[in-house]
């Protein structure tokens, strides 16, 4: 509002040291009349700009005031009292502020500087050395190494220099994290590729082994009847099982025609 009224060349009517317009007299010159007319017009327009910038509640509160200076003075007292009531709150907020690791650190440092600026408006000055120490104390535990390095340093920083210092450290950390992340990805990729190759090799070996095996499917079973032995007869190829007990088979079909079978002892019984 101050900028707008200054640009419109009306802010002078709010000057507390501005002398009031003298009452008109018959002896007034044209210059005095023009000055009085200009002042009255500027006060009217300035009052309108101020009232139009207020909320509805404040408009209803101040619309009965006749001069813009009266409205401006009332608003200044109102907001200055409100600011004085928030000084303890701002100080508490400043001391309780903590820097987390889930947001960019410079954004959080700037938030802290905004609190310092608001405290300055209340005539509460925070020295640079105290600001630097406060930022160090509020850093996330992952910054412990950096905190120790700065505390052991004999350098003295202004708040602007320290912001540059911590910004460089943040960029280095981001670059290192990116580099380490890339190395881990490459390592995992190589490990996965090696495991995949090993599994593929094992599968190929298994397939080759199964392919090379001589596997025969039993589609026909023969039974021989003998009075000399009640044991199972098993040939070395495990392709035909021979038993002399019909009860051992769930189903069977009696061979009508004589057939030769190769026994383990390498002869061909019928």
Automatic annotation (TrEMBL):
**Retrovirus-related Pol polyprotein from transposon TNT 1-94-like beta-barrel domain: residues covered:** 232-263
Name the record gives this protein: Uncharacterized protein LOC111274619
Q: State the organism of origin.
A: Durio zibethinus (Durian)
């Amino acid at each position: 509002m101050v900028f707008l009224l200054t640009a419109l060349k009306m802010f002078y009517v709010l000057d507390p040291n501005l002398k009031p317009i003298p009452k008109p007299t018959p002896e007034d010159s044209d210059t005095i009349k023009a000055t009085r007319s200009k002042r009255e017009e500027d006060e009217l327009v300035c009052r309108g700009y101020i009232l139009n910038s207020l909320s509805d509640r404040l408009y209803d509160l101040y619309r009965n005031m006749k001069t813009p200076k009266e409205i401006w003075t009332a608003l200044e007292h109102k907001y200055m009292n409100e600011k004085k009531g928030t000084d303890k709150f701002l100080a508490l907020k400043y001391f309780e502020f903590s820097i987390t690791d889930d947001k960019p650190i410079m954004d959080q440092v700037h938030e802290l500087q905004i609190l310092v600026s608001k405290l300055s408006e209340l005539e509460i000055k925070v020295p640079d050395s105290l600001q630097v120490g406060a930022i160090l104390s509020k850093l996330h535990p992952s910054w412990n190494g950096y905190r120790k390095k700065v505390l052991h340093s004999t350098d003295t920083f202004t708040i602007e220099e320290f912001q540059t210092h911590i910004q460089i450290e943040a960029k280095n950390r981001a670059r290192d994290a990116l580099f380490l992340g890339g190395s881990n990805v490459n390592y995992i990729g190589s490990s996965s590729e090696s495991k995949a190759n090993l599994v593929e090799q094992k599968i190929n070996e298994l397939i080759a082994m199964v392919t090379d095996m001589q596997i025969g499917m039993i589609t026909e079973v023969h039974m021989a009847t003998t009075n000399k032995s009640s044991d199972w007869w098993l040939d070395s190829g495990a392709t035909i099982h021979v038993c002399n007990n019909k009860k051992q088979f769930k189903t069977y079909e009696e061979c009508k025609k004589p057939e030769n079978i190769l026994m383990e002892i390498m002869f061909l019984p019928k």
